[in-house]
Sequence to fold (674 residues):
Amino acid sequence: MNDSILLGHGSGGTLSHDLIQDIFVKHFDNPTLSQQTDSAILKHDEGSLSFTTDSFVVDPIFFPGGDIGKLAVCGTINDLAVSGATPKFLSASFIIEEGFSMKMLEEIVISMAAEAKKAGVNIVTGDTKVVHRGQCDKLFINTSGIGFIEDKNKSIGTAEKIRVDDKIIINGTLGDHGMAILKAREFNRFKAPIQSDCACLNKLITEVLQISDQIHFMRDATRGGLATVLSELVKSRAFGIELSENQIPIRDEVRAMCELMGFDPLYVANEGIVVMVVGKDDADIVLQTMRKNKLAKKASIIGEITADHMGKAWVKTEIGGRRIMDMLAGEQLPRIC
Amino acid sequence: MNDSILLGHGSGGTLSHDLIQDIFVKHFDNPTLSQQTDSAILKHDEGSLSFTTDSFVVDPIFFPGGDIGKLAVCGTINDLAVSGATPKFLSASFIIEEGFSMKMLEEIVISMAAEAKKAGVNIVTGDTKVVHRGQCDKLFINTSGIGFIEDKNKSIGTAEKIRVDDKIIINGTLGDHGMAILKAREFNRFKAPIQSDCACLNKLITEVLQISDQIHFMRDATRGGLATVLSELVKSRAFGIELSENQIPIRDEVRAMCELMGFDPLYVANEGIVVMVVGKDDADIVLQTMRKNKLAKKASIIGEITADHMGKAWVKTEIGGRRIMDMLAGEQLPRIC
Fold:
């Protein structure tokens, strides 16, 4: 096999064929993909599907806690899982810069395969395009995904079940992904170890959905962070949100780096954080269930749905003040995912 | 709205939100997309799904007969349709270079919406990433698609139904897309009008599947052209293929340009050509049915499945010789789709 990607690997001809066999089919190995038909054929019972897509352009492509491939698998699985669906099938489509290292490509594909396996999902169809040197930056990956969704969970991705006094729960510390990327990109002299939280949340979410039928809303807090999710959620609604800043878990080193760089951790991207809105009677049992999962050891009730200040999301600060959260304006960290 | 794409349009914050509302939701308009949940929720009866993905990096993004958006919609719809599925839902994911014209983006989105509508398919979920100037070339689009597939059509994308004496049919002239792109890119001084054949083939394919249960195989002849499809098809099989060169429809201007540039039209990419393998008793009725559709006025029986020369695809040339077709080696025209 060649050491680096040639334009011919995107031709649809023999080089494409070899790349598919020697890298993609080899590592993503499953009977559906091996058929190599123009589209994957999948069985499904009557009911509803969840369908999502995400393109990943993260820079750098390898970072502490993951790489672009792991991120592409987790990101799409999480989008399905927070909709209340059980993720089942992924597609993987690669846009590769001519000259990209074959060894790095294989490493990324292995990482995707491992993550998909752990999450119980098959990568069943794919595509590869190669562009000339300088026409893309190394490698972009699109993953799209299909999940199956039970009727009782169909409205979890909308906000229609949310009620006043519901509790807001997150499963871990904020800002780890964004600061890990920023550090890897520009500040490697900053010594504190910061790792991306990049992880597939589908098993954690299944555990929670099994223990409670009071999960009224979920979303993963990726680009724009927790603040953007909640301000988007509350916009034009007949309720408000109030968070307690001192309940929001943030690692010391992430907080320090945010302060140094002038970032608000509530706006920094995460790749393994789910925000749940849970009926107040179930909040404690949900919290206890979550904390048994290693992706949610630091799960915390961070606030609640209020009848006051409709359409607004507030934070009670540690020193006793209050500030409003709004959607992220402009761009904080390009190519964070 | 801004005149050009800013990094903030990919931030997940307010600019992303505005772009989604003012361009994507506006033109792709359908109830599922308007929900703007993390993934689209879709109804489905028991049975099988067809799932496919394709990234589009065509250069130039506007060309005679289409643009990258139309191509992205047709390409994925065709991958579903040739699998025997009825295409139902598309995702659309954009990677955009900072500074790209908002007007051009909207034009492309309008073209996608028009094509999807014509094909009877909804674009139900999407994503946008923006990268710095110089980190991608203008605009790349990924479309993934879901179709529903009846049991009787499940093996059309594989080769298992193919029998000796089956006829090979294509719906139109070869090489139009590849030569239109090459001309638009580099040879606009070449005066002959050549248009891409870019089109959604799902309705044509439905008409054929309704008239015949002898459709033994289908594939669209995109990258690598007809020759690559057929040599891939015949590889390691217990049959051969023989084409009659004088039955293969090619426009004079495409043939002329191919000769001038040293291309073999059998290897040039098409974006509106389906190759069908049809039981010999049904070949004529299929041909007549196809020719009633404006995408198949020049449909032709171009060859047949043979018991001879197993595993090989041959062309009988017009001057009475025979040559073998193999998969495309290397790259002919990068960024053709």
User: Anything to note?
Assistant: The radius of gyration of chain A is 21 Å.
